[in-house]
Structures are given as structure tokens and as C-alpha cells.
Amino acid sequence: MRGGYPILGVVPVPAMPANPPTAPNNLPARDILLVEEYDALGVAIAAALRKFAPRHAVRLAHNFAAAEAAAAAMPPELFVLDLDPPQRGEIAFFNRLQKRFPDARVLVLVAVGISRELRSARGAAGAIQFIEKPFELAEFGAAVRALLGRWAAPPSTEVRGTLRDLHAVDIIQLKCLTLSTAVVRLENPQRETGEIHFRHGQVSHAAAGVLTGVAALEEIVGWPRGKLRETELPSDAPKTINQPWATLLLQVIRQVAKNGRKNSLGAVAARPADAGKTGKKILVIDDTEMLLIFAADVLGTTDQTYQIITASTGGEGLKLATAARPDLVLLDYSLTDMNGDDVCRDLLANERTARIPVLMMSGHLAEMATTAKKFGNVVATLAKPFLSGTLISAVTKVLAAGPLPKSPSPPPLPKVSPAAPAAAEPLPNEHSRAQGDGNKDGVALDQPAPAAEPPVVAASEVPRPPIPAPVTAQPEMISAATPSAGRTQVSVTFALEVISMQLTPLLRVETLKLRLADVAAEVKMSDRGATGGMALETGFRLGSIGLSADGRADTIRIIPTRQPPQLVASERFFAVGGLGTQPANPEQNLQLTAPERTSMRVQLTAQFELLMVELSDSFEVVAVLLRSSNPLVRVSNQAGSAGAQFELQEMQLDPWAQLETLSVRAAP
Fold first, then answer.
1. Residue 537, Cβ neighbours under 10 Å: how many?
2. Where are the domains of the chain?
3. CB 292 within 8 A of CB 286
4. Which residue has the higher pLDDT, 466 or 547?
5. What percent of the chain has pLDDT over 90?
């Protein structure tokens, strides 16, 4: 178990061709390099990357050395690194990447998150962006699309968040989030040197010239970019800093900014309207910095006259809405300080903002639908994650409709704590679905808007031109297939009861008819990354089975459980391969069947190839699909013994495709 959820290993994503296909409009396809130790996450994350960046080839490397070799042939526009668990030598790795790929961007997956205050203080200006696992698919998609964007509306004209901008703040976050113990030495362009000590993910000491402790750390953070080097932490290293690292770094960033030494410490949490632009004003309120960048980038590229305003909290957004009176509010339902319904109510209650249309976006579909039905200023909704074409289409149509024709009254505040939200009812204007997906005229920024991309859901009963509406599907699963060559071999062992058997003239078992005794299964995998990614004692259970034309198992679905498997065989009844019996009387025939009160039980082990892994939108393994690789199975009546080899004959399934009985014949 890692990060509180199970991870299962599967085989690597197939390498992309040396000359990847050319993207539409004759633009060269660009590459993403994914560094992921565990194959299951490699498959799942690669599938998500292809969804959010369809014009980019995705390649997978399992470690830093393999990543450097792969990057030399690409080169990558984006590095996605899973550093949970950490890999050794990350500072040297980043040094080499900075030299060879200064314009690339980096997204790092870590097990520990960063506080909202620290994110706001640093924003997206750093060379490294971080996402805590497990994460929502919408958050991951927003980060990827923002980092691959053209940055038409960057947070500042100087800071672009590439490896060229690698800074001490990036390194401090990296070493703390990966729970590192080390010394990082820095040298700035003026040849001044300093060092920062890390002990188990906390900053324990800093020194720069005659300064030590927090003062030295402020001095180092105030330096521009420089050279980095990592060494081991001595056992007698001093300890001059005792604050939690996140609190310490936030304090240091604020102090450096106060001293006027911002360098690359700019933030994007709040962004005023673009000076000199006269087009429509769009206020984007979302607590995910990368989504703010993505939205500003997409909309700023679509129409360069748009005045884009961003806010990371509901309270800040309400203040900006009152001051700027935007033509549209693009609102996330779930914010850190309030929900979207609170923001909508306050907008309606304010005479200056009551006529502003709201385009709500969220992955919480039921709650968003309820809010859209309740508040008249919510004219449309967007289900996260969405691509740039959908965003462009939605914004264009809402802006074309203009302000609300009248000021709807906000619903009264509840006098008591509200009950749990009811199930979402169908949204109004469902007839607008027949008017098309709304994407054919949209301009995609970095990736095309597929024809199947869901359009926008109309959510207001105020008389307005109809807005096309999407199907609000449930949060999706990612299913990632594996290549045909080099698949991970998987053995599955489960318990069966003996219904009957036939013996040879030499009293050896010839055939067995067996009935499933327990759905619990023990799973073992051949791949090192597979077993390292998930504690197998977590256990599995048998799911649905697909049969071939001759009635044999073709595919089998296994599902992770929280209970370790406890398989029991019935050794005292018989031994497979060499049967021992004790007749009740000399006249008894050798017709053996399972006793009524005490069943004979065996363990069967079958070999499979990993075919597909299914993950939820938070990248939790929900099922694994296996394909039969060998008709031969092992049957044993004792845990841990080799047993005897049999050939699987046929299976009988129940109406839900679950195993009921099977037959095996002794292998020649």
C-alpha cells in the first residue's frame, strides 16, 4: 500500500515509434517522458496523458538512468516523475536535465501535499510543479494541459516555469516532500555558496557565509538560479532550524518578497484584469493553480482581447467580481473556503454582480447539478475533466448570450444545517442536447477537441439562447491495455471443493470435477515492479470470467480486497497424484465423491498474462483483467506443495459470469 490506496504492477507501456506521427496542421508531435517505477501506475498515467495530450507521444522509463537515455532521443517537452517512493540522485538528475532540456517543464507526483498557503505564495512560477497522490483525474489533467500550454497569458513576462528556472525553493520542496536526508550545496552566479541540511524531510540547518539558521535560508532563497550539488548528511551535522518545513518555507518566501528579492517567487493565485485589453472580462475562480493557468492560457489564446481575472478562493473571487464586474464567472464548485452555491448566492445578493452569468465546473456532478437547478445565475455547467475545445465552446456561447436579463432572487439562507444533498434531478433545457456538441467551431489550444467531447449543460430557466448540453457522466475509469510482448506473468491460486473424481487402473487421479469453495484468491506476479508496487497480502477475489468457444477460461477479472487470502486444502482426505484410501469395509467400491458433511478441498493454481488494469479517477486499482496463458494448471491438497499438473477442460459459470464448477484432466 502506498499513499493509502493499493497500487498494482503491470507491464510497461509500449515504447512509441522513433519517429512519432505528425500532429494535425503539420505541427510536429511533441513528447512526454513519464518516470514511473511501478508498471500499473505507468500504464494508467500514460493512458491519462494520452487523453489530455493527444498530440504528444508518451514514453515510459522506470528510473533516472533509463529516463536520461530515453530523453536523449526525444526530446521531452514535459517530464512527469513519480517520486513516491523517492529515487536516489534526484539533484544530480535535475542538474543534467537543466543543462540538456532547459525549456522543459516538470510535474512531480509525491505522497505528501503542499498547503494552500504555500501554493499561493509560490504559485506556478517554479520549475517543478507537485501533485499529491492520490489525486483526482481533473486535477492531474489541468496540470498537464497547463504545463503543455503556450502560456499566452503567463503569470508574468519573466517567469515561465521551466527547468531553466530551477530555484532553491524548488529543491527545498522536492527534498522535503520526498522525506530526504541529505545536504544540498548551492553556488550562485556571484560564486557565493550556501548549504541546506535536510533530515527526514525537514530543514534542519542552513548556512551562507557568516549566516546560519533561518537567516541563512532567507539569503539562499533570495539568490537567483545557481549550481546544485548533493552530499550525505554527516552524523554530527548541526541543527539550527526546528520549524516544520512548510511553515518555514512560507515564512521565508514572504520575507524574501517583502525585501524586494522576488526573483522566481512570483505567484498566480490572484491575477487582475489584463491592462490595455478591451474585450470581455472573464473571472476564473478555482483553488487549483494549474487550472487557473490552463483556463487563462486557453481563453487568452482563443481571443487575445479577453481580460482574464483569476482568484484561488471564493472570498477573493467575490471581491474581484464586485470590483471588476466581469461578463462571465467561470466557477469551480468545490473551493477551499466555500462551496459554489455560497458564491452563487452572494453574487445574486449583490446588485453589482446579480446579472453576471456563471459557468460552473466540477467533478462533483450531483452537487453541481443541484446548485445549477437552485440558482438562476448558473447558466451552464462543465463536468471536469474537460478539454480546451469544450471550454472554448462553452465560454463563447455564454458570452454571446450576454448578461442575465433580470436579477433573479437568491434562495433564502437555511435556518438550520442543511441535510445531505438530494440526488441530482434532470437539468432544464434538456432539449438543447439535440443541437450538437458545440465543439466543431471551437479552436483547440494544444490538443484537438474530439467529436465525442461532451458539450455544455444548460442550467438556467432564464429566457436565453439555448446552450448545448453534455451528458454528465460519472467520474470515469482509466483502462490501460498492455503490449502483446513481455507481459507480466500472473499466477492465481484459489480453493475448490471436489465433487467427484475418476481414477486410472493404477489408482491415480485421472479427472476431477470441482466446485468453487471461496472467491478469495492468492496472486503472485513475475515482475519486480509489480510485486513492489502492491502488498500482495492485500488480497484479491475472483470476478467475472470470459470463456473461449471450447468452454475454457479465456479471461478472468480479479478485484483487490482488504483481506489477505486464507486458502485451506483438505490433506487428510486424499493426495493428488497418488491416492490413498481406507475403505469402510472390504466390499466397498472405489467410487469417490465429496462427503456430504465434510468436503474434500484442493487448491488450484493457474497461469495468466496481465492484459489490463482498471483504475478510478484517483488512480486506485479497482480491477485487473488477466488472459489465460496456459491450459495446464497445478492442483494441490497442501498449501505450499507443488501438487500435480492437470489440463483445464471446461468451466460452468453462473448468470453473472462467476465461476461455479470446472473440470480438469491429469496431464500426460
1. 10
2. 176-268, 281-413+421-475, 479-666
3. yes
4. 547
5. 29
Contact at 8 Å (CB) between 320 and 308? Answer: no
User: What average pLDDT does the chain have?
Assistant: 75
Which residue, chain included where needed, has cell 500504464?
A: 43
Average pLDDT over residues 100-129: 80
Compute the distance between CA of residue 173 and CA of residue 229 in angstroms, rounded to an integer. Answer: 16
Q: Partners of 114 in the beta sheet?
A: none
CB atoms within 10 A of CB 575: 16
Burial of 75 (0-12, 13-18, 19+ CB in 10 A): middle
d(CA 188, CA 429): 61
pLDDT at residue 142 greater than cutoff 60: yes
Question: Considering Cα of 37, then 41, then 43, then 45, what sign does the dihedral take?
Answer: negative
Q: How far is CA 284 from CA 16, 32, 130, 169, 318, in A?
A: 37, 28, 21, 27, 11
Smallest CA-to-CA distance from 558 within 516, 612, 484, 482 is with 612
Task: Give the model's confidence band at 436: pLDDT under 50 very low, under 70 low, under 90 confident, else very high.
Answer: very low
Write the CB contacts of 659 (distance below 8 Å, at least 6 apart in sequence): 516, 542, 545, 651, 652, 653
pTM above 0.85?
A: no
Quick: pLDDT tens for 565-597.
666 555 444 444 444 444 444 555 454 554 455
- Residue 351 sits at the vertex; the CA angle it makes with 327 and 333, to the nearest 5 degrees, is 60
CB 148 within 8 Å of CB 172: no
C-alpha to C-alpha distance for 562 and 285, rounded to whole angstroms: 39
Rounded Cα gap, residues 283 and 266, in angstroms:
20
- In this prediction, residue 616 carries a pLDDT of 67
**How distant is the alpha carbon of residue 484 from its chain centre?**
25
Euclidean distance between CA atoms 456 and 389, whole angstroms: 11
Q: What is d(CA 155, CA 142) in angstroms, rounded to the nearest whole number?
A: 16
**Distance (Å, whole) CA 188 – CA 474:** 50
Q: What is the amino acid identity at position 558? A: I
What angle do helix axes 388-401 and 289-302 make, rounded to 10 degrees?
Answer: 70
Instruction: Point out the least confidently predicted range of 431-440, 579-588, 618-627.
Output: 431-440
CA distance 49 to 56: 8
| CA gap 84, 144 in Å, rounded | 18
Q: What is the pLDDT of residue 51?
A: 81
Gap between the Cα atoms of 353 and 357, Å rounded: 9
Cα–Cα dist 158/149, whole Å: 16
The three-class DSSP label of residue 177 is helix
Q: What is the mean pLDDT of residues 652-666?
A: 88
Nearest to residue 618, comparing CAs of 1, 7, 171, 102? 7
Separation between Cα atoms, residue 440 and residue 107, nearest integer Å: 31
Which three-class secondary structure state does DSSP give residue 301?
Answer: helix
Residue 491: burial class (beta carbons within 10 Å; 0-12, 13-18, 19+): middle
- How many Cα neighbours within 13 Å face the side chain of 132? 11
Q: Which of 417, 449, 140 is nearest to 294 (CA)?
A: 140
Residue showing cell 522525506: 179
Residue type, 486: G
With 60 as the cut, is the pLDDT of residue 511 above it?
A: yes
Largest Cα span, the chain? 106
Residue 260: band (very low, low, confident or very high) from pLDDT cuts 50, 70, 90 = low
Convert the pLDDT of each residue in 346-388 to its tens digit. 999 999 999 999 999 987 888 888 888 899 899 999 888 777 7
Q: What is 281-413+421-475's CATH number, 3.40.50.2300, 3.50.50.60, 3.30.70.260, 3.30.230.70?
A: 3.40.50.2300
- Can you point out the beta strands (E) in 315-366? 328-332, 358-362
